[in-house]
């Protein structure tokens, strides 16, 4: 029995039967975390991750030799991802139809990890209803050197402004410098309407609170402020998926949090791939019950 248990481990195989090669390859040189560690993290949280990511067109950040070497952003199918990574044809703005990727189970996630994927980024809509986004994302991007406390203040402010329009929102640490404020939608408004709302809302917020926010993407316009990145809300744009690992120092992950706990969180990279157990516990707790779940109409204004 012992021998068999050992074999299973050395077989480079996970409970889902996806072979992970080179488990010992170091992906995060700063702390020695390996491809095997990354695969184990994803095998542990796959169920949580799929709640949001399943059947969304996704883009992958692949770093086959680890995060410190060459990484690339993959949007389209290269034909090499195997049977568990699915395809959805998407007509792009130039009229060309391209196959985008999606996954619907743990096998799909792990097949991507086997191919060197660290990060998963998703569209705002699902493959079955591509033209109707089911969420708004406001990506808070602080100016260089701005304290995380400023990001928290801005997120709370944004929550209140969106609540004034009737929208319930959920915060997510990006695993990087910022926070995403997410408003789930009922997928009845199309991209044009959703993008238009996101832009008008963001410009109005920046005009009303110019000390805190800018809606201008240009870095030299940021000046100690937070860029309210509304461009995540256009067709073809992506945002990092909840529970995705990041190809950044320390193996941080994008982590759903509750508004009630934001006060005591110190950084956008508070959780890492070492924290699978804690993330699972948290997700099952009262604090995060119903996170990301709401069927809301896009406000009219
Ligand atoms: P941070 O909190 O550090 O800003 P982030 O994930 O929000 O982390 P951004 O640089 O603000 O990072 O990017 C927002 C989103 O834009 C990303 O999550 C990703 O989905 C998308 N994105 C980033 N880089 C690219 C790229 N090269 N091509 C296409 N989309 C990208
Ligand atoms: Mn950001
Ligand atoms: Mn951004």
Order of helices and strands: HEEHEEEEHEEHEEHEEEEH
By CATH, the superfamily of the largest domain comes out as: DNA primase, PRIM domain
Residue stretches low in confidence (pLDDT < 50, at least 5 long) are 1-11
Using the coordinates shown, work out and report the CATH topology of the largest domain. DNA primase, PRIM domain
Number of domains: 2
The strand count comes to 14
- Strand coverage percent: 15-25%
Main structural class: alpha+beta
The small molecules bound here are: adenosine-5'-triphosphate, manganese (II) ion
The level of helicity is 25-40%
Give the CA-based shape.
globular
CATH architectural designation of the largest domain: Alpha-Beta Complex
Gyration radius from CA atoms, angstroms: 19 Å
Name of the level-1 CATH class of the largest domain: Alpha Beta
Protein name: DNA ligase (ATP)
Which secondary structure elements does this structure contain, and how are they paired or packed?
Blueprint: H1 2-10, E1 26-28, E2 33-34, H2 35-53, E3 58-62, E4 72-74, E5 86-91, E6 97-102, H3 106-114, E7 117-122, E8 135-142, H4 148-164, E9 170-173, E10 179-184, H5 191-208, E11 213-214, E12 226-229, E13 239-240, E14 255-256, H6 276-283
Parallel strand pairs: 11-12
Antiparallel strand pairs: 1-2, 3-4, 3-7, 5-6, 7-13, 8-10, 8-12, 9-10, 9-14
Helix pairs in contact: 2-3, 2-6
The chain binds adenosine-5'-triphosphate and manganese (II) ion (MN) (2 copies).
Residues 139, 141, 174, 178, 229 line the site of one manganese (II) ion.
């Amino acid at each position: 029995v012992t021998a068999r248990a050992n074999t299973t481990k050395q077989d480079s195989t996970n409970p889902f039967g996806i072979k992970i090669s080179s488990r010992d390859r170091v992906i995060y040189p700063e702390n020695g975390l390996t491809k095997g560690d990354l695969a184990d993290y994803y095998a542990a949280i796959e169920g949580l991750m799929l709640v949001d990511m399943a059947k969304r067109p996704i883009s992958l950040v692949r770093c086959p030799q680890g995060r410190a070497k060459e990484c690339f952003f993959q949007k389209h199918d290269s034909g090499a991802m195997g049977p568990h990574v699915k395809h959805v044809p998407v007509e792009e703005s130039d009229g060309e139809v391209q196959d985008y990727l999606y996954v619907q189970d743990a096998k799909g996630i792990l097949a991507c990890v086997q191919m060197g994927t660290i990060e998963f980024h998703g569209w705002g809509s699902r493959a079955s209803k591509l033209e109707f986004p089911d969420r708004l994302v406001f990506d808070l991007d602080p100016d260089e050197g701005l304290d995380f406390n400023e990001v928290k203040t801005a997120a709370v402010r944004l929550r209140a402004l969106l609540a004034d329009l009737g929208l319930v929102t959920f915060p997510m640490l990006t695993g990087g410098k910022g926070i995403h404020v997410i408003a789930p939608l009922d997928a009845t408004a199309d991209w044009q309407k959703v993008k238009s709302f996101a832009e008008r809302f963001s410009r109005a917020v920046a005009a009303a609170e110019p000390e805190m926010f800018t809606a201008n993407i240009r870095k030299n316009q940021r000046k100690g402020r937070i860029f309210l990145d509304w461009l995540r809300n256009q067709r073809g744009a992506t945002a990092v998926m909840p529970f995705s690992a990041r190809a950044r120092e320390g193996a941080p992950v994008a982590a759903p949090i509750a508004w009630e706990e934001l006060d005591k969180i110190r950084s956008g990279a508070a959780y890492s791939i070492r924290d699978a157990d804690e993330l699972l516990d948290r997700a099952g707790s009262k604090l995060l019950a119903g996170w990301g779940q709401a069927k809301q109409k896009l406000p009219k204004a």
